[in-house]
Write a structure and sequence with these properties.
With 118 residues, the protein is mostly beta strands. It is 0% helix and 52% strand. It has no helices and eleven strands. Strands 2, 4, 5, 6, 9, 10 and 11 form a seven-stranded mixed beta sheet that branches. The chain has a four-stranded antiparallel beta sheet with strand order 1-3-8-7, with no helix packed on it. It is globular. The chain starts with a strand and ends with a strand.
Length: 118
Amino acid sequence: QVQLIESGGGLVQAGGSLRLSCAASGRTVSGYVMGWFRQAPGKEREFVARISWSGAMTYYAPPLKGRFTISRDNAKNTVYLQMNSLEPEDTAVYYCAAGGTWPTMDYWGKGTLVTVSS
């Protein structure tokens, strides 16, 4: 079993930045695809970004590319999401997930809330 715990969320003004972290425990996630998803109030959960097990390949939801950066440190069993130029529309609960084979994500964190004020 893998446990994922997100951190780094909070309240930020529009134009600001936040860095989310997702720490894995229980077993190593070095062989897993890791992803970030988000769910805004009243909306369905949506894909944000994913990263291959080695970190060599990344993919972003097209509207977010250029503002968000996903990375991972397998030695620390941690994945990150750097978010820049935040907009009120980025307000959501952000979830970390791990999967053996994309697009199936086998493990999910409980999420961290990001609120962007205008």
